[in-house]
């Protein structure tokens, strides 16, 4: 029988080994309700592949998942733990007040996720726990449970003013969490601001990745230093029945990106029969953010 001393030494060595492995792997998001939010099925590819077609089914993914269709998800998809740190705030910058919300660690965060809404949206959209199948609640929980910070804001326009406000908010919280990768997720027209951030060398250096959710593309990105550097992971999520932004044009842009830079870290997930809001409902936050962390060498 092992002595207590030898057992203690062995356990200590095991802890050191596990700690070393975790350090080598880097910061990653731990599982949270993965069985409910994993892709329900794939028509093409594997979850980790660069181009995937997801078997989206409105009857399953809305009618069965939601208690009230497109308004309130069933309770098992939601945890209200993040509400204890949720705040509705104002930042004074650019000569005006920027209204925003936050959940998680305002200082010393290990990662920051910002959601930018599209036309007609507001800061409350990305904080709604029960809409979009509970997927915003999941990203809130992923940040709170992994020492991260989640932000939403009111965007007044999708040009210079909007870009200036987003930049001010991210600079404010990046300064409070030095070195934390910033992931910017943009729904619909919000993508115009995602691309502006990506083309800004100063902001791109802070970013760990950007997620385009039923959004648009930007040809001028190919001329940017960020694209030439090849280090900013990009996720394209799109529904094949999207009537606002044609998925084929977005997929063509993705193909051009990969043709110009085959090793560029980019993924395209097509939700078969999905509509404009489907990527917000169905994107696997944990899968995509962990891929971005690994692709960015973090």
From TrEMBL:
GO MF term list: hydrolase activity
Signal sequence coordinates: 1-22
InterPro entries, sorted: AB_hydrolase_fold
SUPFAM superfamilies: alpha/beta-Hydrolases
Domain of life (superkingdom): Bacteria
Record keywords: Hydrolase, Signal
Protein name (record): Alpha/beta hydrolase
Species whose genome carries this gene: Stappia taiwanensis
Lineage of source species: Bacteria, Pseudomonadati, Pseudomonadota, Alphaproteobacteria, Hyphomicrobiales
């Amino acid at each position: 029988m092992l002595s207590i001393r030898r057992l203690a030494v062995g356990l200590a060595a095991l802890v050191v080994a596990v700690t070393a492995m975790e350090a080598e792997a880097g910061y990653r998001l731990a599982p949270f309700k993965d069985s409910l939010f994993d892709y329900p099925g794939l028509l093409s590819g594997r979850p980790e592949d660069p181009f995937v077609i997801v078997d989206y089914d409105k009857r399953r993914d809305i009618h069965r998942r939601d208690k009230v269709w497109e308004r309130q998800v069933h309770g098992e998809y939601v945890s209200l733990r993040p509400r204890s740190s949720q705040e509705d705030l104002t930042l004074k910058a650019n000569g005006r007040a920027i209204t925003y919300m936050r959940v998680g660690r305002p200082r010393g965060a290990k990662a920051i996720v910002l959601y930018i809404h599209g036309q007609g949206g507001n800061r409350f959209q990305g904080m709604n726990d029960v809409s979009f199948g509970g997927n915003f609640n999941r990203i809130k929980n992923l940040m709170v449970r992994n020492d991260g910070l989640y932000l939403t804001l009111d965007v007044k326009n999708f040009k210079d003013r909007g870009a200036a406000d987003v930049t001010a908010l991210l600079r404010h919280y990046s300064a409070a969490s030095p070195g934390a990768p910033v992931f910017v997720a943009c729904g619909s027209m919000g993508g115009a601001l995602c691309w502006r951030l990506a083309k800004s060398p100063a902001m791109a250096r802070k970013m760990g990745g950007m997620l385009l959710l039923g959004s648009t593309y930007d040809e001028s990105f190919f001329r940017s230093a960020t694209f030439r550097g090849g280090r900013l992971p990009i996720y394209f999520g799109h529904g094949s029945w999207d009537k606002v932004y044609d998925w084929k044009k977005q997929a063509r842009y993705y193909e051009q990106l990969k043709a110009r830079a085959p090793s560029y870290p980019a993924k395209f997930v097509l939700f078969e029969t999905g509509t404009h809001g489907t990527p917000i409902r169905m994107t696997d936050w944990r899968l995509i953010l962990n891929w971005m962390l690994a692709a960015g060498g973090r």
